[in-house]
């Protein structure tokens, strides 16, 4: 498949804690990184956006906004982290939280919360839910065995069907590789 646009976005400025930096690119997709040092690469293909995230600290976030008339049919996020104890995908009034067990990488727990992100009314979801984030661990281990902490590979996350069906132009991501 031929990529139409490839943009490498790197934060290199020293920012005060809590500051964010809008990253420039040629795709029309607006990306704002939460922390300095995060590298975000966007590859845009017809109907698809691929977002590669490199987060040296293992904790971070980003806001992504698509141009109004150019919302992709598919959004795939690849997180180059050693673990994924918490991943948040927020859009409109929907807040999805996912966690990949560091003990059993096949165990993925997810919840969805509507409206207030601080509300305690999170509902567990399953792969049949339109809110489900399809999470796959892609590893370069020759044996195919997946061990966490992940040394060679990434966590691939597909945006939920509800987000894709709604043509929402904006979403936010937050991730934590391991709780400290």
Protein model, in words:
The chain is mainly beta and 180 residues long. The chain has one domain (5-176). The protein contains one helix and 14 strands; from the N terminus they run E-E-E-E-E-E-E-E-E-E-E-E-E-H-E. 27% of the residues are buried. Residues 1-24 have low confidence and may be disordered.
Write the layout of secondary structure elements.
Layout: E1 5-10, E2 21-23, E3 30-33, E4 39-45, E5 48-54, E6 59-65, E7 74-80, E8 86-91, E9 94-100, E10 108-114, E11 123-124, E12 134-139, E13 153-158, H1 161-166, E14 170-176
Parallel strand pairs: 5-7
Antiparallel strand pairs: 1-4, 2-3, 3-6, 4-5, 6-14, 7-13, 8-9, 8-14, 9-10, 10-11, 12-13
Number of helices: 1
* Major β-sheet strand ordering: 2-3-6-14-8-9-10-11
Domain unit count:
1
**Ends distance:** 40 Å
List unreliable stretches of 5+ residues.
1-24
What is the chain-wise order of helices and strands?
EEEEEEEEEEEEEHE
What is the helical fraction, as a range of percent? under 10%
Over the alpha carbons, how many angstroms does the gyration radius reach? 16 Å
> Could you give a short account of the major beta sheet?
8 strands, antiparallel
**Gross geometry:** globular
In round numbers, the mean pLDDT is 84
Based on secondary structure, the structural category is mainly beta
* DSSP, total strands: 14
Strand content: over 45%
């Amino acid at each position: 498949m031929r990529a139409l646009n490839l943009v490498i976005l790197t934060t290199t400025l020293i920012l005060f804690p809590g500051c964010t930096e809008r990253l420039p690119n040629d795709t029309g997709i607006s990306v704002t990184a939460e922390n300095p040092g995060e590298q975000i690469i966007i590859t845009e293909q017809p109907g698809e956006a691929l977002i590669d995230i490199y987060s040296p600290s293992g904790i971070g976030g980003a806001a992504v906004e698509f141009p109004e008339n150019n919302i992709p049919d598919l959004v795939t996020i690849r997180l180059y982290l050693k673990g994924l104890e918490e991943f948040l995908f927020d859009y409109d009034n929907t807040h999805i939280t996912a966690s990949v067990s560091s003990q059993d990488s096949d165990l993925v727990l997810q919840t969805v919360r509507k409206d207030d992100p601080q509300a305690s009314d999170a509902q567990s979801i399953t792969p049949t839910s339109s809110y489900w984030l399809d999470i796959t661990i892609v590893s370069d281990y020759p044996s195919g065995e997946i061990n966490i902490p992940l040394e060679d590979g990434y966590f691939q996350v597909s945006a939920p069907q509800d987000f894709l069906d709604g043509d929402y132009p904006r979403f936010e991501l937050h991730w934590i590789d391991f709780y400290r």
